[in-house]
Amino acid sequence: MRNHLILLVTFLAATIGYSQDVTETSNFTLEEAIAFALENNYSAINANRDIEDAQKQKWETIASGLPQVNAGISYQNQLKQPVTVIPAEIFGGEPGTYAEVVFSQPQSATATATLTQQIFDGSYIVGVQATKAFLSYSQNNKEKTDQDVRKAVTEAYGNVLLATESVTIFEKNKEALEKNLYETEKLYENGLGEEESVEQLQITLSSVDNQLKNAIRLKSITLQMLNVVMGIAIDAPTKLSENLDDLAQKQIVPELTEEDFNIENNVDYKMALNLNEQRFFELKLAKSRALPTLNAFVNYGTAAYADNFDFFKSEQQWFNSSILGLDLNIPIFSSFKRTASTARAKIALEKAKTQLSEAEEQIRLQLESSKSDYILAIEEYDTAKNNLDLAERIENKNQIKYKEGLASSFELRQAQTQLYDAQQGYLQSMVEVINKKTTLETIINN
Fold first, then answer.
1. What is the Cα–Cα distance from 182 to 190, expressed in whole angstroms?
2. Looking at per-residue confidence, does 184 or 246 come out higher?
């Protein structure tokens, strides 16, 4: 079967690429980081190559039905020539006797050129039609890849900001704890405090110190992850020009949940349609196998024969020949193989239609779920912000009470732990707002 049938196999997406070498420090806003990644991300690069490959395959398919010219040159030297035995009476010999005859000279050379033209082939027609669907799939796959890159960059960018803010907060918390511990130790040394108070603060300080060290490590790792997603060398000196709070504020757009939704804009739906198109052409291909094929050809050749290798001499005689012909192939009976193949293709098309209906319902469900998650993320952000304000006031009051001897070290530690949890909850709520908005935008895809 001709090359165009490769369009009907399973579509594949490549994920191998190269990293952009960045030696100077670069500052990126989120949108700048996304734009950079869409040009340099490994998967994005290969998605562009897939489109180019699809365009080349389209022409490869079309060209298979256009005129084809092939040429051939052959040289033979019969080291031991074949002998044929024929009745000797042909040459005037005695009847019943035979003579040994060599019919050709030992060396020969031939040169031929053949032009072939496909006149009718049902599978070729289907293949040409399928090229449009294949190119559409490649373009949709590129769009899907771009969405995945945008989402990955957003999440990675947010994680870097989260780690950076965590380091800052833990450093402030550690500094405040070290001051508290120093004052408490002095009070204890002067007999004005209890040893338990010192120990409680030491426990809290050790925990915060470990969290700070982990946050510093995470800051480096998350930045490396962002570099990889953007297509930059892992150790490139990348910097972010936005802070987490401002970025989260920009991502709070409640009216996004009221935006009109056209499912035909959704990439997953487009790719489900591509699968239907593929199965449709597979069915047409199966049906086309029952049709006859007709091809025409014209051949021109020349041949020479000699006892020695004298083919390039001017006196060498060459004998020309030419053939014009048609090849008609008519499928008659395949023991119902073609019937079974067509039936299977029809079943596959019906399954694809069912999958399309299922995909449509799943996408609508994802939309409603994503809207709910986004609204919840905004509400959680507001709550976390209020909780942080409350936790800061409570911790501040307990600091004052502790210094005045009105609160125990255990009560102070509880207030501090509550503050630390509120701080991390607030940071995480901002990241959730950013990520949930990106997920919702991916589904809507306006």
1. 13
2. 246
Q: Which of 52, 71, 64, 45 is nearest to 6 (CA)?
A: 64
DSSP 20: B
Tokens coding 5: 């049938």
Contact 81, 102 (CB under 8 A): yes
Q: What is the pLDDT of residue 82?
A: 87
Q: Are 296 and 66 in contact (CB under 8 A)?
A: no
According to the model, what pLDDT value does residue 17 have? 37
Distance separating alpha carbons of residues 356 and 275, to the nearest angstrom: 9
Which residues are within 8 A (CB) of 180 and not within 5 positions of it... i.e. 6 or more apart?
Answer: 201, 399, 412
> CA-CA distances (angstroms) from residue 251 to 367, 377, 434, 438?
18, 11, 6, 9
Nearest to residue 382, comparing CAs of 319, 434, 430, 311?
430
CB 114, CB 297: distance < 8 Å: yes
End-to-end CA distance of the chain: 42
Within 10 Å of residue 101's Cβ, how many Cβ atoms? Answer: 12
Which 8-state DSSP code applies to residue 232? B
Distance separating alpha carbons of residues 75 and 71, to the nearest angstrom: 14
Alpha-carbon distances, residue 67 vs 70, 118, 148, 419 (angstroms): 10, 7, 43, 79
Which residue from 19, 55, 23 is spatially nearest to 39, judged by alpha carbons? Answer: 19
The rounded distance, in Å, linking the Cα atoms of 317 and 329 is: 38
Distances (CA, A) of 432 to 31, 230, 363: 18, 21, 21
Locate tokens 């962002």: which residue? 226
Q: For residues 338 and 275, is the Cβ–Cβ distance under 8 A? A: no
Q: Vertex 121, ends 119 and 122: CA angle to 5°? A: 140
- 92-96, 281-285, 318-322, 394-398: lowest mean pLDDT where? 92-96
Two tokens at 360?
């449509």
What is the pTM assigned to this prediction? 0.79
Calpha distance 204→199 (Å, rounded): 9
Our measurement of the distance from residue 305's CA atom to the centroid of its chain's CA atoms, rounded to an integer in Å, reads 60
